[in-house]
User: Which sequence fits this backbone?
């Protein structure tokens, strides 16, 4: 069963604006990852945040993690047309993380030129 | 550069046929995974392997099998293809177990069962 769920399912913004996507999960985690998938391609890892971290940055990406609310957010600043993609959060599967990752259904982000 | 490849990229087969999807990685990763991606379901884990001769069932393993005879390859076999197995299949590998390690994904195989 899926651990993480992204919100919103779809998001359309103008180029240059910031995009925020959220992920909620059900059980305690040690780590949470975000991935990007361009149309017709495989997933690409963006960033990993550990349960003892509250915020992490990578270029134009900012990820936050609130373990008390079991939620994470991905912020993309100064969006570009190339950011158009689906974004997934991933956590360890229930049972302690020995069995790989479980992915949410994704947020489809469209950047309008 | 290290990579993970899948073949074929597109496949059309008939109901009841056996189909094998190939996955090959040159990362020298012990851990390999197969997922399927369907609209409305996201990615679901089919099978995974933590090393040679090791295979494990994921959440949607019925009708699928894998074998791991070397580090580089994890072929996925559909024993008797069904229309419900029409999907996009992704192979992935990682350096370690659990969510501490990122997974590297192949480009996917689009399978249509008619």
Assistant:
């Amino acid at each position: 069963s899926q651990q993480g769920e992204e919100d919103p399912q779809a998001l359309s913004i103008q180029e240059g604006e910031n995009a925020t996507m959220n992920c909620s999960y059900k059980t305690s985690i040690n780590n949470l990852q975000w991935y990007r998938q361009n149309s017709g391609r495989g997933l690409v890892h963006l960033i990993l945040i550990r349960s003892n971290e509250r915020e992490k940055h990578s270029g134009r990406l900012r990820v936050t993690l609130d373990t008390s609310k079991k939620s994470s957010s991905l912020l993309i600043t100064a969006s570009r047309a190339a950011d158009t993609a689906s974004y997934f959060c991933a956590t360890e599967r229930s049972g302690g993380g020995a069995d790989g990752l479980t992915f949410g259904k994704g947020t489809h982000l469209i950047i309008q030129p | 550069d290290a990579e993970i490849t899948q073949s074929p990229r597109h496949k059309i087969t008939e109901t009841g046929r056996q189909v094998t999807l190939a996955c090959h990685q040159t990362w020298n990763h012990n851990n390999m995974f197969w997922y399927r991606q369907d609209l409305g379901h996201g990615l679901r884990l089919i099978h995974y392997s933590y090393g040679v001769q090791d295979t494990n069932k994921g959440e949607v393993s019925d009708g699928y099998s894998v074998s791991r005879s070397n580090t580089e390859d994890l072929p996925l076999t559909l024993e008797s293809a069904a229309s419900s197995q029409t999907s996009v299949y992704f192979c992935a590998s990682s350096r370690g177990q659990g969510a501490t390690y990122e997974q590297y994904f192949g480009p996917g195989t689009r399978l249509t069962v008619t």
Remarks:
- Chain A is about 0% helix and 55% strand.
- The mean pLDDT of chain A is 91.
